[in-house]
Amino acid sequence: DGIRRRDFIDIAAVSAAGVGGLAVLYPLISQMAPSKDVLAASTTEVDVSAIQPGQAIKAVFRKQPLFVRRLTPAEVQAANATPVGALRDPQTLAERTEEGHEDMLVTMGVCTHLGCVPLGAAEGEVKGEFGGYFCPCHGSHYDTAGRIRKGPAPTNLEVPEYTFTSDTTIQVG
Ligand code: FES
Question: I need a labelling partner for 148 at 20 to 30 A (CA). Which of 2, 12, 28, 47 fits?
Answer without folding.
Answer: 47
